[in-house]
Amino acid sequence: MRQSLRPICLAMLLCCSVLPGLAQNANVVAASPDMSLFQKKLYISSAGDTLQYRILYPEGYEQGGKYPLFIFLHGSGERGSDNEKQLTHGGALFLADSNRKQFPAIVVFPQCPQNESWTNITVNRQADHNEFIFDYSQPMKRPLQRTLNLILALIATEKVNKKKVFLSGLSLGGMGTFELVYHAPAVFHAAAPICGGGDTASYNRQTAKVPFRIFHGADDQSVNVQYSRDMVKRLENLKAKKVSYIEYPGVKHDSWNNAFAEPDFLAWFWKQ
């Protein structure tokens, strides 16, 4: 059964893990999308640091106007140097014709190198689960710092609506989403971490000003659902005005499929 969301969702939002009517959902793309519409780019900082990324411009971009900037951080399985794998989960969502028309935006998928990470974590691998220890007191990992630098460069050089900079990510990218908002809360206007987690002790009132919508599968064996629950509780304790949580019973470490299938997954960002 699904409960209605309130500005601060104190209880978990229970959703059926079976997703009926996916073919009718505008967020689901039936045909194979043309990923080449995401242009391949290489960001090079003034210090010579590089970051590969893919960027999708809205239709009619050259005609003027300003657009939201949407950043998506992939999971650990999409790390690499091909500048392609990061579109595996989520790329099709932004290519759906209905979404491009209804939610025009500049969409960016950076790619984290194979042996690096978005976030400062120590992983203790147990027999039946992974234990994650987050530490935001450390400098940002290089891929995350370069992503922030890229975002600031795009805001300065592209037709970006500075009041609509959105961030989301899944798994390792969900963790990176929590950390990036912590380091630059003034940059982002909405964030949606999926099956992630973060350093609850470091989160503060400034961070809690950013609207959050958090997703997780209740039976996730890779990233325990408790990490998202703890972040929700921390935001609640910080008196966050806009935080909601959706937990999917019976869903494991692929809750991004459920999140992307939410009819208002993109609309929520545009409402903030």
From TrEMBL:
Q: Which domain of life is it from?
A: Bacteria
InterPro entries registered for this protein in UniProt: AB_hydrolase_fold (IPR029058), Esterase-like (IPR000801), Plant_Biomass_Hydrol_Est (IPR050955)
What is the name of this protein? Uncharacterized protein
Signal found in the keyword field: yes
Keyword terms, alphabetized: Signal
| SUPFAM superfamilies documented for this protein | alpha/beta-Hydrolases (SSF53474)
Q: A Pfam family this protein belongs to?
A: Esterase
Q: Span of the secretion signal?
A: 1-25
Organism field: Flavihumibacter petaseus NBRC 106054
